[in-house]
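Entry 14. Structure prediction run on the chain below.
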Amino acid sequence: MKKLVLLAVAATVASSPALAISRYNSPSMTCEAARAAVLSQGAVVLRYPSKRVAGMTLYDRYVRDNNQCEQHDYAARAYVPTRDNPRCPVLACKPVDDNNGSLFHRPWIRF
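Output returned:
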């Protein structure tokens, strides 16, 4: 029993670093720096203040390509505010539209 518990703990500890994801405040970065962070790390969380609700912080996970999305999602064009660009182009995972039977066809949008 001790061996089983020890093995489970070791497996959990070994997989923990894979769950880490970098977080950045996009308004303090240039657009180029935000895009470089996404490209180099594959996926990051970018945070920025809401323009509609004072004091509210918005955030999402932004990715390099479809490979960082779940099976039924694809990397869609999104925009975040940065220090030098109010609409810095990035990609975020969005669900595939299954209404037209394209569940297994994920669009590929270039970063």
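The mean pLDDT is 85.
Filed with the rest of this week's runs.
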